[in-house]
Task: structure prediction
Amino acid sequence: MRAAAAFGRQAPTIGPEAFRRLLDAEPRFRHMFGGSKTALRDQFMSALSTALVTRADVGRFPAATIRRLEQLARENRKFGVAPRDYATLAEHLLDVFGERLPAGPDSGAQVDALREILDEAMSLIAAAAVEADRTDGPATYVGRVLEVQRRTRDIAIIRVHCPKPIPFTVGQHIPIRSPLAPGIWRDYSPAVPPNPEGLLEFHVRIVDGGKQSRPLVVASRPGDEWVFGTPRGDLGRVLDEYRDPLDDDPPQGRHHLPEPERRELLMIAGGTGLAPLRAMIMESADFPSPPPIHLIYGARTPGELYDLRTVWELARNLPNLTVTTAVEKRNDAPLTDPGPFSFHPNAPLPRLGVAADVAARMHRGGELAGKTVLIAGRGEMIKATRQRLVAAGADPRFIHHDPVAETTVAREAGFPVLD
Result:
């Protein structure tokens, strides 16, 4: 459909103008979005234009596209966006699109054609917002900082208590807003599993250009009030197949299929990417038959292995867990000597190299093909690790990670940008 294709091509310029008109017509939106306006707009327009072009090409919205639109609705709840607001935005988008169409005998028909599929998309988003209001609980949760541990110059561990526990699963990330960076949302993954006490732990590293990460690391104090949005992500679903006990005495005979072999887990953490993987390790420890896990915990220098003590204690107490550390340089930069949490008397020296190379060296001879791999870290680390492991023989169907955030703006607003 030409209208959808034209909209997709012009989305980078239609979006800013339509959102400007929306903010002029509805001033309440200015206060909703705060410093996240640009990232919200760009992420929304990217998802919407992709959805419309796909709808025009195949005649329907595929399931994956519907899930992405529904996720947008859930994410926007934290801003206070109401289901009815999507119809208002659609009108502004159509107005701008119509104004920028070259005059011609079919320009009106193109606007009508776009209106049809745009209304369909916005109806999906609005319906998902209504359903989320009904089933997902509050749009936001509130917690207070209990403790701040400055582990390195640019990494802090921050523990928070939420009186009303947030319903998340291990491996998910949760949008966070702090009074130290008003209006800015940033995603962080809890480093502990869900618990009835509502206790959370976040590992925060200063990101270059980060509008929220630096204040959180440098200035967070006990008593600070944080606001949390809707958790998202499904990295932890990898654990679902391991939750049930293994059958030690399976039925025999031709009418019984053998139980599928469970793959060993290879977890690769870069820096604070350790947090979601550590939560998964802790939760799996309570499974009747925990899977074998090899964690490769990587950092630039030994001093940046900021949670080595905790990880090594987990390995000492969990027979299914093996830990290998990897560093890119043996020597720490000035003022980053290993602190008490970057050291354990029984831990061997870290292997030299990036975590992906260490993993490839340790799993030779086709071993990687039989592993289920989970990767967590910054976007560039995830991409490089995936490429290295596939080249070394890992099966890409069994490599799992979150969508990669490619821009600081998107990361700071808490919006992963898909590859």
Summary: The longest strand covers residues 141-150. The longest helix spans residues 107-135. Confidence is low (pLDDT under 50) at residues 405-419.
